[in-house]
User: Fold this.
Amino acid sequence: MEVINALGRRKAAVARVFVSEGSGKITINKRDLEVYFPSPLLQYVVKQPLNKLGVAEKYDIKVNLDGGGFKGQSEALRLAIARALVKINAEDKPALKSEGFMTRDPREVERKKPGQPKARKRFQFSKR
Assistant:
C-alpha cells in the first residue's frame, strides 16, 4: 500500500495526514502522540475513527499539525484520519459518518467590528 494523504481543518488548525501500513504509530510534528497530546482525552479524540473501525494497530500515521489550540488541533486531526481511512476503504464511510467523524465543523471566530470592543459586544449605551 502506498502512502495515503488527507487534510482536516477545525477553527484555525490544519492537519495534514500521511497514512501507511504499519504497527499503529502516530507521529505528530516529529513527536509521539503521547508527547504532543499529554491529555488522555485528546488522545482518545484523535484515535476515535481508528477505534471505531478496529484498525488502530494496522496503520502508521505521520501528521503535520499547524495553527489553533490543542482542542482544535485534535479535532482537525480526527477529521483528517477519518478522511484518509475512507480513501483507503470507501465502505467505511457510513460507519464514520454516523459517528460524525466525516463532518467538517464550520464554526470560525467572528471578526471584531470597528467601533466595538468585540465582535458582538457593544459599548454601554448612555441616554444622557
